[in-house]
Design a protein that fits this description.
The structure is a single chain. It is globular and about 50 Å long. It has seven helices and 18 strands. The chain has a six-stranded antiparallel β-sheet with strand order 1-2-5-6-9-7. Strands 10-11-14-15-18-16 form a six-stranded antiparallel β-sheet, with helices on one face. It starts with a helix and ends in a 7-residue tail after the last helix. The longest helix has 35 residues. It is α+β, with helices and mostly antiparallel strands. Helix 5 packs parallel to helix 7 and helix 6 packs antiparallel against helix 7. A hairpin with a 2-residue loop joins strand 1 and strand 2.
Length: 311
């Protein structure tokens, strides 16, 4: 009798296992079929509708608008677009046509009318936050998103960029691009951080991806190019440098990263989400530090080591 019961239990377990396996295989098959139906972005349509030129990377397309019209300073350092004053929107191919995700920079007076325009366009606001403290004038960052036919999404992108232009009285990128002083020992910086950056207008910037995390939003991959990265932008001198940036963190990385930054004299100025439907859950942290370049770099590296981006 006991043997019969054991056989029944084993048979029941085996049937459940097979059913679950079949369900998983079917789900994976459906996901593959859905991915196979995704067509490449029509970049020509995006450029024609928006009237803006961007950059293509592995099938994605990104439009960036430098906020040259904003004269922002923090602790005596001038903040220019490579230091975190570039509004952008990225297009990712989707079953509907395109998914967009972006980060728009707004003044305090821009904010109210701009968010009304975002809602009027049927887009989603997923975050509103600061990047700096003690910045004059004050600027805010709004993350927006949406999904639909490529030409329709391009029209919505044009509308939101046009709204900023209307509110400022001119295109933010029409003002002359500025530059800053940078006499930091870049080779030493690279040696400490363990990565190489890029120099632009006196700002030396690291952009570090998270290949250890397969991030999805609405089932689509969110890439380094599409905004899923940790970055650090530097200006100044060896004795008095400024570093500003953003950390991308899994939930178990948040506490150790904050601890490492603060213990090394780097201010944590914002902690928030950028997305709503992402899997796994991701947190973003903005920081600001002023001091000897080598000391700041060692503190940043210690924080980086608390994440999957650490080497």
């Amino acid at each position: 009798m006991k043997r019969t019961i054991h056989l029944v239990v084993i048979l029941f377990w085996f049937c459940n296992f097979c059913d679950a396996q079949h369900h998983d295989d079917k789900e994976k098959g459906m996901q593959k079929m859905e991915m196979d139906t995704i067509k490449p972005l029509d970049i020509a349509i995006i450029e024609k509708v928006t009237g803006l030129k961007g950059k293509e990377n592995n099938g994605q397309y990104k439009i960036t608008v430098a906020q040259n019209d904003l004269n922002v300073t923090v602790d005596g350092f001038k903040i220019i677009p490579p230091m975190g004053l570039g509004a952008w929107i990225a297009f990712t191919p989707s079953r509907e046509g395109a998914m967009i995700m972006g980060d728009i920079i707004l003044t305090e007076t821009d904010l109210g009318p701009f968010e009304q325009e975002v809602i009027r366009q049927g887009l989603t606001i997923s975050a509103i936050h600061n990047h700096f403290i003690r910045n004059h004038p004050n600027v805010m960052y709004m993350h927006i998103g949406g999904m639909g036919k490529t030409d329709a999404m391009a029209q919505k992108v044009k509308a939101v960029f046009d709204k900023v232009k209307e509110l400022r009285g001119k295109s933010p990128s029409s003002a002359p691009a500025d530059s800053v002083v940078n006499t930091i020992d870049i080779k030493n910086l690279d040696a400490i951080i363990g990565y190489k950056g890029e120099m632009s207008k006196g700002v030396y910037k690291y952009t570090i991806g998270r290949p250890d995390v397969d991030l999805k939003d609405h089932g689509l991959t969110v890439t380094n190019f599409g905004g899923f990265n940790t970055w650090a932008a530097w200006q100044g001198t060896e004795d008095k440098a400024a570093v500003a940036g953003d950390f991308t963190m899994l939930e178990n990385e948040v506490e150790p990263v904050i601890k490492a930054l603060i213990e090394n004299g780097i201010e944590v100025v914002a902690l928030h989400n950028h997305m709503i439907h992402e899997q796994p859950r991701i947190f973003f942290l903005h920081y600001w530090g002023v001091g000897p370049a080598g000391k700041l770099a060692k503190g940043l590296k210690e924080a980086l080591n608390q994440t999957g981006s650490g080497k």
